[in-house]
Design a protein that fits this description.
The strands form 2 sheets. Strands 1, 3, 4, 6, 9, 10, 11 and 13 form an 8-stranded antiparallel sheet that branches. The protein contains 2 helices and 13 strands, in the order αβββββββαββββββ. The protein is mainly β. β3 and β4 form a beta hairpin. It is globular, with a radius of gyration of 16 Å. This is DUF1080 domain-containing protein. It holds the Pfam family 3keto-disac_hyd. One of its GO terms (molecular function) is hydrolase activity.
Length: 204
């Protein structure tokens, strides 16, 4: 647990969580709301805010496992450039309890939040562990949930602030085509209890 295999070491992966401490991570607010215990980073919930990496990454493959309680809303932020403004300067892979949802939306679990709906419902029941892989390679973004690729997007297609390529609105006040791509990885506290483990990254 929270260890690399020999193959992963040879591939160039490194751990982002040592299984015991929050070394390498910073809380935007309420640090006491994030605990490193029993081999997981535990978000206690209720504080709102984020825990993000000191280091920044541009092109990479990031892997993490998470387990959330029922109805919990959270997310993995990446290419997040301004710690004071995660909402507009970070891309997000949505974490949400949408196991029973039939029609996938841009806010369903696995979505590239507010930009691309997941192609299928791959999230497990609340209380079960899920595996996430986020791959960023220049303008190409691939999101995988429990072994199923649910989003493939060319971020250069987002050339107008507040608009998706199909003309629908999104929340962002910047056009993602023009945004810096070197940024932090962050975990979101949106008011619910959630655990993270086995966080590792390979830079491309």
């Amino acid at each position: 647990m929270n260890a690399l295999t020999e193959e992963e070491k040879q591939q160039g992966y490194r751990l982002l969580f040592d299984g015991e401490t929050k070394n390498g991570w910073v809380a935007t607010q309420s640090p006491e709301g994030w605990l490193a215990q029993d081999g997981v980073i535990l978000c206690k919930g209720g504080n709102k805010g984020y825990l993000y990496t000191v280091d920044r990454f541009e092109n990479f493959i990031f892997q993490v496992e998470y387990r959330a309680e029922a109805k919990v809303n959270s997310g993995i932020f990446f290419r997040w450039t301004d710690p004071e403004d995660p909402v507009h300067t970070g891309l997000e892979m949505q974490i949400l309890d949408t196991y029973d949802q039939e029609q996938m939306e841009k806010h369903s679990s696995g979505a590239l939040y507010d930009l691309v709906a997941p192609s299928s419902n791959a999230v497990r029941r609340a209380g079960e562990w899920n595996q996430i892989t986020i791959k960023c390679d220049r303008n190409e973004i691939q999101l995988t949930l429990n072994g199923i690729t649910v989003v493939e997007a060319d971020i250069d297609q987002w050339s107008v602030a507040g608009k998706n390529p199909d003309g629908t609105d999104n929340k962002f006040k910047y056009a993602w085509r023009d945004r810096p791509r070197l940024g932090h990885i962050g975990l979101q506290d949106h008011g619910g209890r959630i655990e993270f483990r086995n966080m590792k990254i390979m830079e491309l």
